[in-house]
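Supplementary Methods. Inverse-folding protocol.

Structures were first reduced to a discrete structure-token string of length 402. This string, shown here, constituted the complete conditioning input.
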């Protein structure tokens, strides 16, 4: 469930880091007018969507909402490089009243990326009237997908402003970071219900399938607030997922298409897999990893500033931009990718213990077939289906591998 939000989340983290740096006024690399740069980023989303589709040889008319592939990485990299090299955060801040200059610049830049990402994630086969109508509908769905993160981010900012208005609330010293930590905690708790509301998810009605799901979750000790239907009109995948940390604010989602395609044993296997994620608190580890990456960026930037001052060096603006984009993409590809693969293996092993290899293997193969995924091909955040099944076969023979 993290993947659909990951691009926008990384953009927010990057921009937060940029704005937290010591105030300086370096010259922009090109110095193009702000409207030209911002419109150029948005236009690049359209061009990259169609360009990559053409290069990839007639890719089917599909959205990239559930994938963070090369086109979306390219838009994120272009946006991040533009922010850093063109000093967009400082130039935009000058256009707003001083009282909320940083907040105004942050909002404009995040909204620009939000739109560019939606455009690059929605390629169409033909750029005619029908294709443009389809493009518009898909972009609207994508924007709706990401809307919860923007709402939660805005809510966090308002919460921070509210804490700053409290005279006795710590704002410096040992507890100076307490407001930020509290706002993040509130954000993580409230995120799941906000997402369910923005996506307008429906509760799974009383049925044998619902009873089976509830029994499996109860056996694993992983209670959820509600079992919802995956919004296929927003996320066009036949899949299941969990979201949330606390039982009262935690949800299991399963797509209607997948639910109608699975046997009882296969449904148990899918639910056991998701319960495995909950039992091992994988979502919490992802959150900690993202927070840790942000702190490492701040530490690295501070160290570089001290070293450059000590040695009398001047680090070029373009070099800072390149390093930041490379760090973001490297963290995504190798950090998040590594964690995701290991977490999937742990969840697979839990499903293996609950239902055995045959039902879980059938469920995995069925999910790959329903979503048009080659079972032999891995991606950056999942092992291939056949790789996963081979590993589980080894676990059956050698339980110590689990």
């Amino acid at each position: 469930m993290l993947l659909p939000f990951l691009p926008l989340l990384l953009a927010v983290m990057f921009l937060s880091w940029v704005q937290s740096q010591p105030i300086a006024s370096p010259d922009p690399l090109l110095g193009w007018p702000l409207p030209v740069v911002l419109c150029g980023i948005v236009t690049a989303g359209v061009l990259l969507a169609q360009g990559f589709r053409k290069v990839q040889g007639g890719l089917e008319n599909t959205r990239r909402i559930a994938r963070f592939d090369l086109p979306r990485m390219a838009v994120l990299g272009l946006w991040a490089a533009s922010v850093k090299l063109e000093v967009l955060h400082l130039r935009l801040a000058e256009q707003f009243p001083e009282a909320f200059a940083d907040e105004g610049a942050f909002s404009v830049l995040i909204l620009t990326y939000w739109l560019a990402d939606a455009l690059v994630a929605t390629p169409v086969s033909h750029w005619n009237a029908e294709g443009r109508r389809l493009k518009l509908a898909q972009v609207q769905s994508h924007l709706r997908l990401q809307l919860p993160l923007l709402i939660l981010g805005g809510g966090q900012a308002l919460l921070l402003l509210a804490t700053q208005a409290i005279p006795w609330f710590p704002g410096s010293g040992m507890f100076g970071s307490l407001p930020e930590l509290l706002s993040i905690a509130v954000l993580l708790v409230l995120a799941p219900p906000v997402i369910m509301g923005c996506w307008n998810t429906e509760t799974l009605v009383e049925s044998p399938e619902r009873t089976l799901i509830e029994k499996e979750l109860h056996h694993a000790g992983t209670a959820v607030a509600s079992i919802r239907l995956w919004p296929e009109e927003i996320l066009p995948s036949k899949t299941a997922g969990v979201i949330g940390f606390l039982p009262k604010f935690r949800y299991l989602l399963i797509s209607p298409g997948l639910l109608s395609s699975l046997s009882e044993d296969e449904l148990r296997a899918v639910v056991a897999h998701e319960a495995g994620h909950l039992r091992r608190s994988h979502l919490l580890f992802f959150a900690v990893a993202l927070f840790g990456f942000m702190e490492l960026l701040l530490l690295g930037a501070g160290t570089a500033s001290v070293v450059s001052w000590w040695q009398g060096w001047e680090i070029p603006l373009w070099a800072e931009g390149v390093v930041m984009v490379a760090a973001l993409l490297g963290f995504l590809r190798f950090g998040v990718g590594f964690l995701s693969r290991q977490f999937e293996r742990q969840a697979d092993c839990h499903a293996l213990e609950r239902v055995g290899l045959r039902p879980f293997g059938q469920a995995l193969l069925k999910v790959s077939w329903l979503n048009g995924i080659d079972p032999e091909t891995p991606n950056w955040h999942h092992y291939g289906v056949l790789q996963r099944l081979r590993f589980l076969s080894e676990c059956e023979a050698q339980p110590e591998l689990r």
